[in-house]
Amino acid sequence: MQTYSQKPHASHTSSGVALGSDVNRSAIVRLKHHATRRFAGGVLLLALLGLAAMLSVAFGAREVGWSEIFAALSGQVETIGDAAVASRLPRTLLAMLAGAALGVSGGVMQGLTRNPLADPGLLGVNAGAALAVVIGIAWFGIDETTSYIWTAIAGAGIAACAVYAIASLGQGGATPLRLALAGAAITAALSSLTTAVVLPRGDIGGLVQSWLVGGVGGATYVQLLPILPFLAMGLVITLLAARKLNMLALGDDTAAGLGEKVAVARAMSAIGAVLLCGPITAVCGPIGFVGLVVPHACRLLAGGDYRWLLPFSALGGAVLLTFSDIAGRLIAHPSELDVGIVTAFIGAPVFIWIVRNRTVGSL
CB neighbours of 69 closer than 8 A, spacing ≥ 6? Predict the structure, then answer.
């Protein structure tokens, strides 16, 4: 009797062990597959970034030869061709930095709001920065890069805080849906105010409207240097918040149950995104769709883990914005299109695809 009762138990235990082994083996295979995909994706993005850098230096309104490219890269500026190449170096660097910053901030915004349509414009960050800079130019006469940066960061921060405060009203707090709705309303209101400030000022209308399109043309090292500390701080904060974004992806209740402080996680992520978007908006103007498109594309390579997704979004954003800038130069040669127009052409179809694709309906 004892022997009979033990046999089924032994058989069940053996099946459980076999099932557990199969599950472990399947998990190991999945991890290896993800690791291989991430490695291949990282190599691909680095190769594309190198190609984009070379093409950005080589192509432009003026055709240049290899000798002029090498001369400019070595610091010699003796001919017009050398000068043309030399002027493209800071432009290329700014395109890479802006793309990386917008890509990372887009991934953070999507994780923060758990909304696949989120980008730096959703929480009013870009619109707040743009309005602050326009007011600074129109009413206070600011004309220095450092003033632009601080003004843009202040505007972006105030707008983000206003969105969060409005979304927190009522029961339930700042849910992803409330954040998205409040952000859309604030963005529309701030954009209208920006237009209202610019319209009566014909003396600055051309300058401001060109800046509002968004572009990296005319970049100089003098413009780049002040934004580097802010971008470095924003990148560090967002990378430190990556694990918190993974927790928020489980839902507020689950994240809180696992010991995560939801409000702190959201505040930390939002501060990082503001530090990335504000300086870039100050220098380039509001560039749309990069933060929307890049994280979705990078999820195909890096998966949904934000510890991998954010670095991949930095590389992907740099690649996309640099190639978009090159395309803007070639499409309208010998003139050029601002990169904000090119990214709008790329982002609009992707936006429609995201809306229609149910598989990315939630994050």
Answer: 57, 58, 85
For residue 22, the one-letter residue type is D
Q: What does the alpha-carbon distance between residue 164 and residue 175 come to, in Å, rounded to a whole number?
A: 10
Residue 165: the pLDDT is: 84
pLDDT digits (tens, 9 = 90+) for 219-242: 888 888 989 999 999 999 999 999
The span from the CA of 214 to the CA of 130, in Å, is: 11
- Two tokens at 78? 């003796």
- pTM for this model (two decimals): 0.84
Output DSSP code: residue 359.
G
Sign of CA dihedral 154, 160, 163, 166: negative
Q: Give residue 344's identity as a one-letter amino acid code.
A: A
Nearest CA to 225 out of 283, 165, 162 is that of: 283
307 torsion bin: left (phi>0), alpha (psi -120 to 50), beta (else)? alpha
> Looking at the predicted structure, is the pLDDT value of residue 7 above 50?
no
332-335-336 Cα angle (round to 5) = 60
What's the CA gap between 122 and 199, in Å, rounded?
24
